[in-house]
Amino acid sequence: MGSIPAWLLRHTVEVEPHEGEGPFGPEYGNAVTVKCFVDDKLQKILDNTGEEIVARTVIYMPLDTTCPVGSRVTVNGRKAQVLAALRRDGGGLPTPDHLEVALQ
C-alpha cells in the first residue's frame, strides 16, 4: 500500500511549519496547502513525549508533510497549534503510511 490513499485526502489545510524561536517568539515557514483527512472532535492521545493530551482536531496527512510540533495549521477557518506530530510508517509493510497531527 505505501502511503495514505489519495481518495481519503478529502480536505485541505494550510500549514505554517514551526522553524524555531526568534527574538519576538515563534518563527514559521511559508504557508503550504496540504491535502489531508480532518477528524474534528475531542480526543485523548499521547504526544511525542508519551504524555496524555486532549486534541480538538486530528489530521491525517501524507507522510512526507513537514508539520513539526509548534507549527500553525489553519483548519475549518481557525488557526491552531500542533500539539503532536506522529509518524505512522509501516517500514515497507502494506500499511497506509501517514503523519498524524494533533491540534489544540
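the 2nd protein, sequnce then structure:
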Amino acid sequence: MNPDVLWRYAPSLISGFGVTILCWGAGGALGLLIGFAITLMNRLGIPPLRWALRVFIEVFRGTPFLMQLFLIYAGGPSIGLRLGATTAGIVGLGLYSSAYFAEIFRAGFASVPAGQIEAATSVGMAPFDTLLRVTLPGALIAAVPSIVNMLIVLSKETVVLSIITVPELMYQVQTMAAETFTAFDAIFAMAVLYWLLVETVSRLGARLEARVTGYLAREERAA
C-alpha cells in the first residue's frame, strides 16, 4: 500500500464520502417518510388503495436496486422526469428503502398488544388519540432495531450510485484506481470509510435501542 497515493487522493475520497453520506441520509429520510405514509394509508382499510400500495411494495422489494436506479435516471426523461445524477440517486434510495420501511412499520403496528388499544377505547379515547398516544409510540419503539438495521444496509447500497455517475465514494475510488493502477489501495480506503460509517450508525442505533429499552422498563414499573 502506497501512503503517498492515498494522501494525494484523500481530498477526492473525503469529498466522495461526503456525497455518500448526503445520498444515504437524504435517501433514508425520504424512505422513512414514504414508508410511514404507506403504512398509515394501508391502515385506512380501503381495498383499491391497499392493493395499489401492495403492488408498489412488492415491485420495489422484488426487483434489483440497480434496475430501479436506471429506470429513474435513464428512463425518467421519456415521461418528462429529468433528474440530475445525485437527485436521481437520492430518489432511488428513497423509493427502494420505502418498501422495506413500510413493512417494518407494519410489523411495528402489529406488535402493539390489542389489549392496549381496547383499554384506550374503553376509557373513551377517540380513534385518532388512540393512534397518536397508544398505537404509534408502541409501533415506533418496536420498529427501532429493524429501522437501524435497514439504514445500515442502505448505506452499503450507495455504492451502486456510481453507475449513474454520482460522484460518491465508489466513483472516486474507481477514478483513483484507474489513474494510479493501485486497485488495492483504493478498495482498502473505501472499505475503511464504509466501516466507519456503518460502525457509527451501529453505535448510534445501539444507544437509541438502549434508551428505548430503558423507557419501556420505566413504563412497566409505573404500570
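The two ends are 60 Å apart (CA to CA). Residues 3-42 form the longest helix (40 residues).
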